[in-house]
Amino acid sequence: PTNNLQMEGSSNLRWENCRAKGGSPGFKVAILGAAGGIGQPLAMLMKMNPLVSLLHLYDVVNTPGVTADISHMDTGAVVRGFLGQQQLEDALTGMDLVIIPAGVPRKPGMTRDDLFNINAGIVRTLCEGISKCCPKATVNLISNPVNSTVPIAAEVFKKAGTYDPRRLLGVTMLDVVRANTFVAEVLGLDPRDVDVPVVGGHAGVTILPLLSQVKPPCSFTQEETEYLTSRIQNGGTEVVEAKAGAGSATLSMAYAAVKFADACLHALRGDAGVIECAFVSSQVTELPFFASRVRLGRNGVEEIYPLGPLNEYERVGLEKAKKELAGSIEKGISFVGK
Ligand code: NAI
Question: According to its UniProt record, which reaction does this protein catalyse (predicted)?
């Protein structure tokens, strides 16, 4: 045996076959970077998702322990671990959804763009594996800088001839989750009743909350608008500073990633009316990628909604966001061109 994970997998075969016969259709989901700060709680929460029948946990370190641990949870999904590059293809083969939180996180004083040099190469390698082993899978890309890693993934898929823009989604859900929480605090509401569209991208000024379109309808003073916009844009930095060198958001990110992945799975199953914000290939602006509200379906992104009416504050924010985004997108595209 090459490792104890495979042995454990084969001893489970009878149990897996038995469940496959009588069980629900369920989706096959891989997490790449599954042993990390986001990866571990994300793996745990995906193991609890009733739409998942098979969960593949891949990382370059520590997957045996994480897999053994999570596999003891008495939920439906079967868990298998994969360790190191030589097991990447096995981890990806047959997957319906691939979630990627692999790569280094920020430390205090760093921007997301400072992560580019390391994470760009990691994302390229993982996406090459996806084109080869599960070219039809939906991809949820979490690794930062999302504004550049999504264009990198698109270029890798184009080169391989497997690019389907509807199936590549940059995860900006944490910005929405934060926006809902902070807006609810200001309005004195339950965050579950609040829905804030956040558009643009996933870094600093590219994160553009549309406070004029909050549901339920409400209004903010200029002071509240500035406070909320700034807090939503800097939510990640708030966590990086509080963790003081121990990483960036992991628990709230795992929550947001699962919320997003669950929406993707419901859409893949054929549920109607699944609408979320995501950073995708888009014609909503002149930029090739942009985050906005999208309707998800069996084929991934099936409709991209226009931004809707913006107020003056948001129009100014949009121009700033587009300027920075253009550079980040170009940086991603030219990385693969090299
Ligand atoms: P972490 O360092 O705790 O975990 C990253 C994991 O990736 C590690 O287990 C590491 O071994 C693994 N890894 C490294 N190279 C790999 C490779 N070639 N293949 C597979 N796995 C590999 O970092 P954390 O906190 O989990 O963050 C992960 C990424 O998510 C970072 O880039 C971070 O900036 C990003 N992030 C994105 C957010 C978003 O809203 N989209 C929010 C928070 C973080």
Answer: (S)-malate + NAD(+) = oxaloacetate + NADH + H(+)
Tens digit of each residue's pLDDT (9 = 90 or more) over 113-163: 889 999 999 999 999 999 999 999 999 999 999 999 999 999 999 999 999
Q: Are 59 and 39 in contact (CB under 8 A)?
A: yes
Tell me the one-letter amino acid at 179.
A
Tell me what ipTM this predicted complex has.
0.99
Q: How far is the CA of 59 from the centre of ligand 1 (A)?
A: 10
140 is in an annotated binding site: no
The rounded Å distance from CA 140 to ligand 1 centre is 13
In 3D space, the residue among 219, 216, 235, 213 whose CA is nearest the CA of residue 314 turns out to be 213
Residues having CB closer than 6 A to ligand 1 are 32-33, 35-39, 59-61, 101-106, 115, 119, 122, 125-126, 142-144, 146, 171, 174, 202, 247-250, 253
What number does the ligand 1 atom closest to the CA of 256 have? 40
Contact yes or no for 199/210 (Cβ under 8 A):
yes
pLDDT tens digits along 77-112:
999 999 999 999 999 999 999 999 999 998 898 888
The pTM (predicted TM-score) of the whole model is: 0.94
* Nearest atom of ligand 1 to the alpha carbon of 121: 18
The model's pLDDT over 157-209, given as tens digits with 9 standing for 90+, comes to: 999 999 999 999 999 999 999 999 999 999 999 999 999 999 999 999 999 99
User: Pairing mode, if any, of strands 289-297 and 274-281?
Assistant: antiparallel
For residues 169 and 139, is the Cβ–Cβ distance under 8 A? Answer: yes
Most ligand 1 atoms within 8 A of CB, residue of 31, 32, 38 to mutate: 38
Q: Which two tokens stand for residue 28?
A: 């096959």
Distance from residue 38's CA to the centre of ligand 1 (Å): 7
